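It is worth pausing here to work through a concrete case rather than discussing structure prediction in the abstract. The textbook approach is simple: state the sequence, then state the predicted structure, then interpret. We follow exactly that order.
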Amino acid sequence: MGHDRQGATETTRSINEAVYSALDFSDDTDFDRVSQGFIGTDTDLVVRNEQGDVVWDMQQYAFEAQDAPDTANPSLWRQEQLNNRYGLFKVVDGVYQVRGYDVSNITFVEGRTGWIVVDPLACVETAAAALDLVNRHLGERPVTAVIYSHSHVDHFGGVAALISAEDTAAGRVRVVAPEGFVEHTVSENIYAGIAMGRRTTYQFGQALPKDEKGFLGSGVGKSFSTGRITLIHPTDVISETGTTLTLDGIDVEFQNTPFSEAPAEMQFYFPEYRTLCIAENCAASIHNLLTMRGAQVRDAKSWSGYLDEAIDLYGDRSDVLIMSHNWPRWGTEYLKEYIGNQRDLYRFIHDQTLRLANHGYTMEEISEVLRLPAELDSNFYARGYYGTVSHDSKAVFQRYLGWWDGNPANLHRHPPVAAGQRYVAAMGGAQRVLEVAQEAFDEGDYRWVAELVNHLVFAEPDNSEARELQARALEQLGYQSESGIWRGFYLSGAFELRNGIDESLGMQTEQGAGENGLIAALELHHFLDSMATRVIPAKAAGLDITLNFNITDSDQQYTLYLKNSVLRHKADHNEESADATITMTRDALNAIAIDTETGFANAVASGELTIDGDAVKLAELFGAIDDLDMHFPIVTPRETA
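Step two, the predicted structure:
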């Protein structure tokens, strides 16, 4: 393994060259917008954690200052040149943004006594760097309020760099979030967090070099920071559109937009500054109706409707539009046109997918032919730098019709290894597969190569010739991709076929362990629900266990029942006939969540955990809980579950 990366083939060069005639690259308006209001920055920005590890690095993208190479779609290259403009910017008097200090933006709005901060980035290290930049250029002011626009980690994870839980408990700081924020933060970041985290490494190209043949950016920003995630619970929850709060003397009008770009999301308007924050429901790109890292599918119809409502509510009153990613937009009439076009592209994808589905077309067939109208497609902000028409149409199909196309031949297909073995045998063996695939590669049909050789790789994962040919096909597809995250997936797959899995890539500091981390912020019932998703049926078979859990520092009582390989719990309850009662602190529980064996041993030794009853039952319960590892293979086979 470890083959050199290849350059662009003639087919790829031709495809990328054709992009120049499809779009107006002479339009420099976005380059003016992205620089408007620039105040200052940290030259050669690199952010490190307390251990000295790099968690964010903008220096590595300096190579994108040159013209697009033939190994990159020039439209994506242009987008990433725009995303490279980082620093502190004045949006309007009283509203400032720090952009390029993480994959998302952080906004500072002047209150009467301090800052109202919108979306405190993905980790404490980048949020601290952004706050330091603001303090140096605008003077130090306390943070008096925080607004989480939605439930994705890059919009709350750095909050502990700005405020503490003690601040909110004492009433010094208000934290505002949409209804369902905590619940969906848990479901999107904890329940399926391991699988999402692994796929995120592909989406954001975390194993890839940052160069002309590697990762360029995600389309809505660069990559993802890798620092410590935190969460401080909201003090104010927005459940209805039209709600107005006064935060540090500034009125803020809220529009609730659930199940749009996130299951819990809201837009909001600052009348004093005539500024509308559209959250992540608009960007300088098509967004994802189903993100490739994995999440709940989104509602394109509602999303489009919320944007229409925003125009009615705030359009004529807004001079500027700020977003959670990319750069602002100015001008009342232009804002209404921009939001309207974003509204229409999601509604178009929704309606036309269903029209074709009702003609009997499958999701693959629909995604192959569906294109935006020219009047939308010609706008750079309606291009597929992040989401794409292709995979968004599949999301709409899935939302209404599910994973299956209705063809009984596809109802119970063989899994990849079994199918691969059969395909290879049917074609006459591995050598014949390679011959056919090489012919297709030479003809520039890289999608067919990827489909064909995937069968061989899953049938014979140690076949180095197959792995390299598959890597070369994925590589060319990545070079052609206008979507930054399609490029990330293609090139990450090629990287792992050649080099194996980079096990140095891990979850963001164990999903925010420690003070104000995600685990510490979990409600106990969410913690137990997450634990239930880790039960191993083979080890839980035949077990019938009832355990009381009493958490001393929060005065909570739960009973856990393990039966039929299902772990369930009952709140505010202790079972008299329980096998044992475990009394422990919440800190001990958090430590056990991170490392079951070590955390349990330390908690017993320190006296933070005591057992009254049959300790063997507790050991049996923990013995049936899976120890998950995010470094599972994606482009090669894995062990059967």
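Step three, interpretation. The longest strand covers residues 556-563. The domain at 10-401 is CATH 3.60.15.30 (Metallo-beta-lactamase; Chain A).
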